[in-house]
């Protein structure tokens, strides 16, 4: 009977995650249940009516996945977090959070949690002959949208490298889709039925990374419990380390040792454990720039860089913009229950001419924003943020940005300032060698930045390369 199947699935739901939390549009907990024993008195009765930040005081509105899902419509998958309960107890967890949308409005969020502290990290539920694993939520190669030569080459490389176990270094600007590439490699590999764990190295203090990577032994420090790190949990699978250039150099040395020896030792432990994990690392800058600025150890870079995959920025594959636009329109039609057919010719021309400093992520977010204001079946110019339509959006000679024409993250703002700064100094300098000296950077680093920002110098004039 179908009802019996559903009943068995729900009553055995604890077989594939350890807890579930549902919050409303104000991020107030409306349902919370744990399927594992716990010693911190965390249950539905004493968490209803609170926010996740009340339950876990180390979280903020910007670091809570539930809060971000409600506020920004953001989905988080396989995100490792350290949760510190009001009692002082710390718990390591892998979290999946999704916004709940009704009639185009976010009305809440649902979060499922797997506690790393658990003795076993169960990743599947068997229901008759049906097996559902965590990998069902991962991207695959066909999820990479585009028909440009750059994307065709990237997909070809993903297919080739997925057949091996070599460590991989992915580099590309923010918003290009590096984790999508990493998940696609895992999904196409022989490891696809084992865990894929993603860790953003910039999101966790360096003092905690070692315990997250390698685990801890009870009593190794005050309050420490015996728990596995992500390298043990992902044994047989893949670990994706994003923004490794933000990692402390000493921690990079320990990571290199684990990769080389294929062994890890928990903090406070003495017995090394063998691990079989594929490492995929990512950085949001050119590798040579990170090496020149001593943000990646050379020995770690050489170990990871046997296979390098560059994810091209959107401005270098503008032929893919119509495909991406169509894809995102389908996504938001489904989420917001609308029936948008496409964009106006004016919008189409703009989308193909704009440089998209935030890459695919910015394009996706701009279309989502336009959906909120679209009043017909065609997205028009006025449905977009007015900041996209300023006359001086792409000046031939970049000038110092101001608060009126730049809109983006701090990192994007710094990059915009750096581009304008180099352009202005370049106009006043007779040679690249002299410019590098004046900027107190190497010629190699200067060349990298000129390519990155598409700047060229000739006869003391700075122009943007089209």
UniProtKB/TrEMBL annotation:
<dbReference type="InterPro" id="IPR025662">
    <property type="entry name" value="Sigma_54_int_dom_ATP-bd_1"/>
</dbReference>
<dbReference type="GO" id="GO:0006355">
    <property type="term" value="P:regulation of DNA-templated transcription"/>
</dbReference>
<dbReference type="Pfam" id="PF25601">
    <property type="entry name" value="AAA_lid_14"/>
</dbReference>
<dbReference type="InterPro" id="IPR002078">
    <property type="entry name" value="Sigma_54_int"/>
</dbReference>
<keyword id="KW-0547">Nucleotide-binding</keyword>
<keyword id="KW-0804">Transcription</keyword>
<dbReference type="Pfam" id="PF00158">
    <property type="entry name" value="Sigma54_activat"/>
</dbReference>
<dbReference type="InterPro" id="IPR003593">
    <property type="entry name" value="AAA+_ATPase"/>
</dbReference>
<dbReference type="GO" id="GO:0003677">
    <property type="term" value="F:DNA binding"/>
</dbReference>
<dbReference type="GO" id="GO:0005524">
    <property type="term" value="F:ATP binding"/>
</dbReference>
<protein>
    <submittedName>
        <fullName>AAA family ATPase</fullName>
    </submittedName>
</protein>
<dbReference type="InterPro" id="IPR009057">
    <property type="entry name" value="Homeodomain-like_sf"/>
</dbReference>
<dbReference type="InterPro" id="IPR025944">
    <property type="entry name" value="Sigma_54_int_dom_CS"/>
</dbReference>
<keyword id="KW-0238">DNA-binding</keyword>
<keyword id="KW-0067">ATP-binding</keyword>
<feature type="domain" description="Sigma-54 factor interaction">
    <location>
        <begin position="144"/>
        <end position="372"/>
    </location>
</feature>
<dbReference type="InterPro" id="IPR027417">
    <property type="entry name" value="P-loop_NTPase"/>
</dbReference>
<dbReference type="InterPro" id="IPR058031">
    <property type="entry name" value="AAA_lid_NorR"/>
</dbReference>
<dbReference type="InterPro" id="IPR025943">
    <property type="entry name" value="Sigma_54_int_dom_ATP-bd_2"/>
</dbReference>
<keyword id="KW-0805">Transcription regulation</keyword>
